[in-house]
Design a protein that fits this description.
Layout: E1 2-5, E2 8-11, E3 26-28, E4 33-37, H1 41-48, H2 67-78, E5 82-86, H3 93-104, E6 108-112, H4 118-127, E7 133-137, E8 140-142, E9 146-150, H5 151-161, E10 167-170, E11 190-195, H6 202-211, E12 215-218, H7 221-224, E13 232-239, H8 243-266, H9 272-279, H10 283-300, H11 303-315, E14 321-324, H12 328-338, E15 341-343, H13 349-361, E16 366-369, E17 384-387, H14 394-402, E18 413-420, H15 424-438
Parallel strand pairs: 5-11, 5-12, 6-9, 6-10, 7-9, 10-11, 13-18, 14-16, 14-17, 15-16, 17-18
Antiparallel strand pairs: 1-2, 2-4, 3-4, 7-8
Helix pairs in contact: 2-3, 8-10
């Protein structure tokens, strides 16, 4: 027997001696009973032959799907309704999820990373034929059979609501591949993760597999460009550091590499995360990290890049342009120099929404942002993306290109990459382009 109690399952098997051999079950001396984490429900219910979550189905047709979306949904169903679907930005992740909810007929909690995404998800669910959609965000506690919640709200209310939903839909699922515990608080035996950029680190891959499932379907940008996404062109503009800056960069990189090689020779876990953790514990390690950060900052923005950006903005003065930077400091510098509207984490929701509305209407022709536009913002009117370089990883690279790939009548997207010759940016761009083609 399984009984929900404040975020965990009280486990009472027919034979008490079997309890501690069950997955995740431990003895709780405070209440003198056996307990298991919420997310272990699927295994426990199968082993014990009992249930604690209502899996009643109220099936509906849901929205029509494109061929690749239907294949993704079929793959998810074939995997026991557990798994991650990887689709590029603009590829219809939300629509695929709405179809999964409607056709399965299960009660569902849709977990989204930010408040900005709550209303678009509610609208998509209602448009997809779900008759009644609740909300758990922005102070609203309206629980329905299908409910949209922010990650923060889902975490807060998990102990109370963890056994209420049979299906957990996780938007931007890569956010949950780290230490976030939100998904552990829910018993939902069926889970659908959505992302354009799945994690690559082995630990994060394993974490997402445990809490959501394996990647069951993957579609790349190049598979959809020109058909379901806008066709696009990648243009690389090479620039050179001034001689004194190039010499300083080379010295910083050499110092960092020397320390990194020394650490690598004796490290057991040779991940970047492990290096960062170990480096901050020693004077040599901290100096190496400082050199690494300075080298990245040195190429993030300088006069030659600014000159090329000015040329791009002049050439595309009639187009809608998004400029992506390494950090807010560079974003504000560009905004001042070129009189562009900045969108950063410092800007409130109302002002951000107003800026995006003016951009969509054409009143504003260009925006500059560090990370606010990376995900969760729909800007189909954008035609040109300028990636100024610095230190974005493959995930940011794919997200940023995705901002200009949403289809729009007569649109051909242009992505301009500013690359500093003779630096890590050259290899970085090549690696990112391979990642773009691979998904």
């Amino acid at each position: 027997m399984l009984t929900w109690d404040r975020g965990t399952w009280v486990v009472e098997p027919g034979d008490p001696s079997l309890a501690e051999g069950l997955p995740g079950v431990m003895w709780d001396p405070r209440t003198r009973c056996h307990r298991a984490p919420a997310w272990r429900y699927a295994e426990l219910s199968a082993l014990l032959g009992c249930s604690g979550v209502d899996t009643h189905a109220d099936r509906r047709p849901g929205p029509e799907l494109r061929t690749y979306q239907q294949r993704a949904l079929d793959a998810w169903n074939g995997a026991g309704r557990r798994g991650v679907v990887v689709l590029p930005t603009g590829g219809g992740k939300t629509r695929t999820a709405v179809a999964a909810i409607a056709r399965s007929g299960l009660s569902a909690l849709c977990v989204v990373p930010t408040r900005v995404l709550v209303e678009p998800w509610r609208r998509a669910l209602l448009d997809g034929g779900l008759p009644d959609v609740g909300q758990l965000a922005d102070g609203v506690k309206d629980l329905r059979r299908v409910t949209v919640a922010t990650t923060a709200a889902a975490r807060i209310h998990g102990p109370r609501l963890g056994a209420r939903f049979a299906l957990l839909v996780v938007d931007e699922a890569h956010h949950h591949a780290g230490r976030d515990e939100t998904l552990e608080l829910y018993a939902a035996p069926y889970r659908l993760g959505l992302t354009a950029t799945p994690p690559e680190e082995p630990e994060q891959v394993a974490r997402l597999r445990q809490l959501v499932g394996d990647v069951v379907a993957r579609v790349t940008v190049d598979e959809l460009a020109g058909t379901f996404l806008a066709p696009y062109e990648l243009v690389r503009r090479g620039v050179d550091l001034p001689p004194d800056e190039a010499a300083a960069y080379a010295a910083e990189v050499a110092a960092f590499r020397s320390a990194y090689r020394s650490w690598w020779a004796s490290a057991v876990d040779r991940s970047w995360t492990s290096f960062m953790r170990d480096a901050v514990r020693t004077k040599t390690g901290r100096a190496a990290l400082a050199d690494w950060r300075r080298s990245r900052q040195r190429v993030a923005w300088f006069e030659a890049k600014d000159t090329v950006l000015a040329e791009v903005l002049a050439a595309h003065s009639r187009d809608r342009v998004l400029v992506f930077t390494r950090d807010n400091a560079v974003a504000y510098a560009i905004a001042r120099r070129h009189l562009l509207a900045p969108l950063t984490c410092d800007i409130g929701r109302a002002e951000r929404d107003a800026v995006l509305t003016r951009f969509a209407s054409g009143e504003l022709r260009a925006l500059v942002s560090a990370r606010v536009l990376n995900e969760g913002v729909d800007v189909p009117a954008a035609q040109v993306a300028v990636l100024t370089g610095g230190s974005q990883g493959s995930r940011e690279y794919i997200q940023r290109i995705g901002r200009v790939l949403r289809p729009h009548e007569g649109k051909k997207a242009l992505v301009v990459e500013l690359v500093t010759r003779g630096t890590h940016e050259v290899d970085q761009v090549e690696r990112h382009r391979r990642q773009l083609a691979a998904g």
